[in-house]
Amino acid sequence: xxxxxxxxxxxxxxxxxxxxxxxxxxxxxxxxxxxxxxxxxxxxxxxxxxxxxxxxxxxxxxxxxxxxxxxxxxxxxxxxxxxxxxxxxxxxxxxxxxxxxxxxxxxxxxxxxxxxxxxxxxxxxxxxxxxxxxxxxxxxxxxxxxxxxxxxxxxxxxxxxxxxxxxxxxxxxxxxxxxxxxxxxxxxxxxxxxxxxxxxxxxxxxxxxxxxxxxxxxxxxxxxxxxxxxxxxxxxxxxxxxxxxxxxxxxxxxxxxxxxxxxxxxxxxxxxxxxxxxxxxxxxxxxxxxxxxxxxxxxxxxxxxxxxxxxxxxxxxxxxxxxxxxxxxxxxxxxxxxxxxxxxxxxxxxxxxxxxxxxxxxxxxxxxxxxxxxxxxxxxxxxxxxxxxxxxxxxxxxxxxxxxxxxxxxxxxxxxxxxxxxxxxxxxxx
Length: 430
Description:
- This protein is of the alpha+beta class.
- The chain has three domains: 10-77; 84-222, Beta-Lactamase (2-Layer Sandwich); 251-429, Hypothetical protein af1432.
- Helix content is 57%, strand content 9%.
- It contains 17 helices and five strands.
- Strands 2-1-5-4-3 form a five-stranded antiparallel beta sheet, sandwiched between helices.
- A hairpin with a 5-residue loop joins strand 1 and strand 2 (118-125).
- It is elongated, with a radius of gyration of 33 Å.
């Protein structure tokens, strides 16, 4: 049988000793009364002092344990926050951390925009419900003070604090405990972290201010890293758009096709619960799937009639050309799965490697259905766009040969009105 005894914590052990000292004093006094005598006063005093001393030590131990727990939580949360480069994820983690560490009822995070104005980026209560704009506005006096002085502010009862007690919004909202600290990156103020409570006075103390200030330093670094990453990703995507535009100038037959296929691929992926972290890779791969055609001679790429066998042999090299063009670019390593395998077929008769079944990357299998759908429903020089139902039937007929049956099943489950809306939107934008 396993030992299920729960060992007391150090502060619980000290409390037990304190209670034992008090009990011993009471027993000593009771015994003395039964003997018609008085207990030695110095002994009673010593037991009382011992009990008080033990309680004092217990309080210090409990406080030290709390500080230790806070520091461990700070280290873990800082690690978690800095593990993501998605800005909105970082902001949510930071906000939830503030409320969890301080026990606040609600909080919000504001960041400066390009013009230097503070904008609320995330605001929620302890239940993670979003705050209304008016709930944030009442605290703007405190925020403005922190921004002006670039230092944290702590008030245990805002209604009695001479700095804020005259503010009508603070009075109307009955704000009591408030803690607000600046977010600084390289000594530059980039925003503020705010937490408060309407019900409890004295909820926050100096240790909370110190802890939150330390966390704010880590959060500011994580936010700046995420911002830089997002800016870099945006620059990358602009570069990709330029590459696709360059291809469109050469291949007028399929102009706008890549942008449309992206939308259909993402629509299918969403229905398949595709990993969110991989959506950017699918998007970039779908956008650049034909980039290798830049390496195909104009005489072949823009030939008005059918290609002969030799010309088809060259055309089939465009996935390899695309792979070579983009190999070595780190942020395109995973999108290359779609670029290189987008002409593979589920039955193994595709190119360039003749992959079959699940050996074909899932992104490429999703892309194949999206690509076919757009091709069928778009105008081409040799035919007019065909109907939605025709596209559905062609894809259904080629399930298990050209297309992954699982992807086909998901595609066919998408309502007509959703596909029609996506088609209309994509054509307006392409």
